[in-house]
Amino acid sequence: MDSGQARALADLDAIGQGALVAAGELTATELLEAAIIRLEASRPLNAVITDLFDRGRDQAAALDASGSARRGASGPLAGVPFLLKDLGASLAGTPEAMGSRALRTHVATQTDWVVEQYLSAGLVVFGKTNTPEWGNHCTTEPSLFGPTVNPWSPTATPGGSSGGSAAAVAAGVVPAASGGDGTGSIRVPASCCGLVGLKPRRGRSSFAPGAGHGLEGLVNGHALTRTVRDSAALLDVIAGSADGDPYAAPPPPRTYLDAVAERPTRQRILTTTASPFPGPSTDPAVIAAVEETAGLLGELGHAVDSGAPTVDSDAVTDAIAVLHTVSNAQLHALATDHLGREPAEDEFEASTWVMVREGFTTTGLQYAQAIAAIHAQTRRFASGMAGYDVLLVPTLLTAPPPYALLDQPRGTTRAFFDVEFATTGWTSLANVTGRAAISLPLGITDDGLPIGVQLMARDETVLLQLAAQLEAAAPWADRRPPSWSGA
């Protein structure tokens, strides 16, 4: 396959690429080699930090030899090239630094349950994407690997912590890549890079074999995609539970891919452009994107009212800060075990050290109180949504922010999150409440940067159906950033 053919394939989403393999028009190996050509052309973006080309070629060859992908036996994504975020998606025997210099030689010893589901679906894994240390930042500029470049602008962050995955998808290297979301880490990069970013509801997938949940339920994993149907198909792949899981979300009545083909029932939608946290006013371009989306949803037959649930923003920020200090103390313990010694200060980011040190002194009572606060604010949020099905809000309160803003130490963990939430606004409340939330690229700044608009609901089905409606009414998949690997 020549480079022109490889670039042309970038225009197809994951289901479109999988259909070529199922029909026998291309092999999984040919799709993979085309993706590698596009990856090499996109090296300046620094989206992929670990090449797994040989394992990808072996996997693609096995799929081609068995004919399972050609027959569609593994589903609509069989044979499609795929990238894993280098955090929360362990693949045994492969490097796993998690963005940390202290873990620069770390190799995963087990394969996560969700990755097993990806492989069983025939997704061909051939690399791992850049992420900030331990997923702490809503930007992707770790000192270990350096910053990932946003394909839309070299001066705007691609977001984080799934910024490497977002940049690779936005540039057309792959149609989809994995991500994880603890305070917005799928939706923030989706907004910055003009993608679809769904955070599933709590318990939708499993953290087996290593954990029951992440950050006391704040973290959920899924993917970055360009189309809604790809997000639905990938959610079908990872939806479910493993033996020993502490809890699981109720299974959907039908597949998500089938559901997005159906028109949603009339939804009662509450909307605001104001932030639930203190800080500067929402950017006018963001306000315009949300208001235009509200108008479009009204035209599509949904009931849209102004308003929003309220929470105690201090209680939420304090609780999230405490949970992160303990999580970072765990990172220190992991690094100590890996290195056989305590890591030196220059082996962690400066902001990580702030969280680690606070984690050493966080008491059990503080941790228990943080969990209780999360639950109390979840109930308060739910009460504020009584009578409504969906919340429509900004993803980010600003245009894609600059580098060196969302990863800086602020003296305390609480001060760090004060700065983050002044930019991200509503994203963390979906994590706190366990609600599903999706960012859609429905706005654009005067200088051509993408703006995400966010929908939240109890369940993913209605979000994906609304997203498919909006995608049909205001298409975005054909928008191309300057750094498009298909050019």
TrEMBL record:
<dbReference type="InterPro" id="IPR023631">
    <property type="entry name" value="Amidase_dom"/>
</dbReference>
<dbReference type="Pfam" id="PF01425">
    <property type="entry name" value="Amidase"/>
</dbReference>
<dbReference type="GO" id="GO:0004040">
    <property type="term" value="F:amidase activity"/>
</dbReference>
<dbReference type="InterPro" id="IPR000120">
    <property type="entry name" value="Amidase"/>
</dbReference>
<comment type="similarity">
    <text>Belongs to the amidase family.</text>
</comment>
<feature type="domain" description="Amidase">
    <location>
        <begin position="30"/>
        <end position="458"/>
    </location>
</feature>
<protein>
    <recommendedName>
        <fullName>amidase</fullName>
        <ecNumber>3.5.1.4</ecNumber>
    </recommendedName>
</protein>
<dbReference type="InterPro" id="IPR036928">
    <property type="entry name" value="AS_sf"/>
</dbReference>
